[in-house]
Amino acid sequence: KSKLVGVEFEMKVALFFVFIGFATAFPRYLDSHAEPEPLEDICRSEGNPDGKLCDEFEVVDVPDSAFLIKRKYPSGVLVYHQLANANVLDKENYLNSFYKIAKYFDGDNDQNKKMEIRYPIQSLMEYNDEHTEIIYGFYAFSLGSDYTLDTAPKPNDPELLLHHEVASEGYSKAFGGYVDEDRFERVYKEKFAAVKDEVERLELPYTKKYKFTLEFNDPRELNHHHRHEVGYLVKFTLARPSLRLIPAQPIEEICQSKQNPTGVKCLDYEQYLIPGAHLTIKRRYPAFTAVYYEYPNNDPFNRESWLIAFDTLTAYINGENGANETVAMVMPFQHLFEYGNDKETMTESYMAFPIDVSLDNAPAPLDPRLKVRVIQANDAYLKAFGGFVDMPNFERVYKEEFARLAKELGELGIEPDRKFAIAMDYNNPRECNSEYRHEIGWLPHIYYF
Fold first, then answer.
1. What is the DSSP string of 273-302?
2. Whose CA is closest to 55, among 35, 38, 72?
3. For 427-439, what is each residue's pLDDT tens digit?
4. Element (H or E) spanning 23, and its range?
5. CA geometry: angle at 153 spanning 51 and 219, to 5°?
6. What single string gives the DSSP state of each residue in 113-176?
7. Looking at per-residue confidence, does 240 or 204 come out higher?
């Protein structure tokens, strides 16, 4: 009897370790063999009232393919997290982005508003021209048709941005199962290769420059009912810093005028054409009163610093001042650089007051980083460019644009005193869209009262 008990115990131990081994291997098995969960079992509908809230899209049949899916996605607002190292195919990046965006939906926004997550979780990868390296990547959730850039809650997390995405379409392949960290990149690359082979076999149009993924499940859930999709976009224009390829939004479409009564208030100026110039414009600005933010860190090309300055200045004009009065915002949002000893130094960011506000009646700032002063009339040589400038490319893009302006001024025989440089933004820097207008340039001199 004791021998039988011993044998029975050994068999139980053996079965236990077999079970542990299978349980450990099971998610790895699932990553390439499980069937994807059908969308009708995931997304909320009349037939599935308890399902997840899903984004809207149109499905188009792909003849002669056993697995390709073609979808058309409408334009809409996304909340997105850009990856510093651009590597979407890293599960740690995926989880980090998910947690950040999930907090936004859970109320970590300027309205403290809780919203239901709208699936799928989207990612986009942009490759270099040789299609060998990912140069840009982000994860995002859609806010659907309920919000615009003006009405959507603004993220509290400075790494999250709102973005109005253009309509797009793409070919994808769905697969199921839980994909663990060790196999994440390998599995996704295999699925991308399958999509690429199939669209090329069927001679379908697509772009190798942009890949995307769609995740229809909470990545923290461990089960084999996951649904993943990977694919290539058919045609796409990404609103990101391919800035020299994106024209600046015309200033007459931004600023208030008789022809554009709903535009924003802008600083007055006189503009002069420069014979032979393709990029450069010359403007003369009258004297104006401004509230300015003085930088403590002298870091000229730091987008996070610019956002802090913008938030501080907008708080002032929205009533956080000694008079508790709101003041009309006058665009552009301006940044001044002072050069000395061959090194640029950020000195301040400022916003102009409306013409009826002077030193005598301007509300006193409460924030010690803010001051009010008059800036004398001045000339400026400027260059405009468009698009959204993200954090990783911020310094590079602005230096490239200054270099282009310097090159043309040199060709025109114009040599401004480069002690003071200026950058101007005509849009809310927390909004991400392709209709941005930025201007950079040099001031011959600058005087303060």
1. --TT-SSEEEEEEPPEEEEEEE-SS--TT-
2. 72
3. 887 765 556 789 9
4. helix 2-33
5. 40
6. -B----BPEEEEEEE-TTSSSEEEEEEEEE-GGG--TTTSPPBSSTTEEEEEEPPEEEEEEEEE
7. 204
**Burial of 288 (C-beta count, 10 Å sphere; 0-12/13-18/19+):** buried
Beta pairing, strands 160-165 & 431-432: parallel
Rounded distance between C-alpha atoms, residue 34 and residue 196, angstroms: 21
Alpha carbon distances (Å) from 339 to 145, 192, 336, 441: 46, 49, 10, 13
3-state helix, strand, coil in the chain (%, to 5): 25, 30, 45
Contact between residue 340 and residue 284 where contact means Cβ atoms under 8 Å apart: no
What is the DSSP-derived secondary structure letter of residue 240? S
Under 8 Å between Cβ of 404 and 383: yes
- Written as six digits, the tokens of 73 are 């996605």
- Out of 262-266, 288-292, 425-429, the most confident range is 288-292
What are φ and ψ of residue 345, in 5° steps?
-135, 125
Query: Which SS3 state, helix, strand or coil, does residue 369 take?
Result: coil
Produce one character per residue of 291-329: b if its CB has 16 or more CB atoms within 10 Å, e if not.
bbbebeeeebbbbebbebbbebbeebbeebbeeeeebeb
Beta-strand relationship, 168-176 and 431-432? unpaired
Calpha distance 419→417 (Å, rounded): 6
Q: How many CB atoms lie within 10 A of CB 21?
A: 10
Alpha-carbon span 39 to 321, nearest angstrom: 52
